[in-house]
Amino acid sequence: MLNKVYTQGLGLPLQGSDVAVAWDSLYWFLLWLSVFFFILVVGGMIYFAVIYREKPGRKTKYIVDDHILEATWTIIPTILLLVIFAWGWGVYKKMISAPADSMEVRVIGKQWLWNFQYEDGRLETGKLVVPLNKPIKLIMSSEDVLHSFFIPNFRVKQDVVPGMYSSVWFQAKVPGEHQVFCTEYCGTSHSGMLAKIEVLEPAQYELWKNNKPYELSGVKIKSTEIIAAMQSSAKLANANVPLPEQGRKLVEAKGCLACHALDGSKKIGPSYKGIFGHEVELADGSKVMVDENYIRESIEKPQAKVVKGFNPVMPPYTKDMIGESELNAIVAYIKSLN
Rounded to whole angstroms, how far apart are CA atoms 292 and 164? Predict the structure, then answer.
């Protein structure tokens, strides 16, 4: 059972970290302070408008200066402003100052996915796995344009800027899945640039590190449903669009053209032009026919059969990232380039 402190309520996301609790406390203080002064100011305005409304024969009384009143409405707001500043600065400083024993993970943003690179060389796409109650420092960079890494349940957000490193940290207190969004418009598929964070109990995390099956407990997210809804919308939009044309739009939207050319030239990966139906030589010296199954395997398990002369740098695409209908469209497009 989750600690009652880290619960969801009143329209806010679940509080998955101590920083989330701290920010929410400041948020509620500001909200109720604003409500208090709204009632005080607007209520006073209405009251005086009614009491001192114009009447026949009434003459407004001359009011002299009241230095005590003037000092009061100057000093009290100043004190409140300083309290808010000190409170906000304290939470912000806590949010940006990662503990010395933090576990570091590199985050690479690119149109339109998140890659997570661990110290042991492991690379995960669309999923960050971390242990419960362990400080995690994310060192982030972008391969293309400006992105922004946001974890609502932890109340942490940081821009991911091309050409430099930025960082943010969190210490997850709630096991389970937590949603990651990109909150800086970065192109056509910005809204689909999703990832999830799996927070595991220490024993389950050790199983994951050793590539053994593990059971994920705790909260769940609805990213799968979100992606399914997006794919459903795409089906309607593509109802009268030929399959190769759908594939062309997909390889553009998924960022494939950053690494694969369409004109036969060599980039980070092999060119799509004229490759279907031909044999290619692999890094181990063997040869394989480029057919539907090879293209599918190269998308889902790109490290399995790397073409000679190219480095194994392509991240795997999961079913959540590219569905069956999208795979069919991409294959149809590559076939059409022959």
Answer: 39
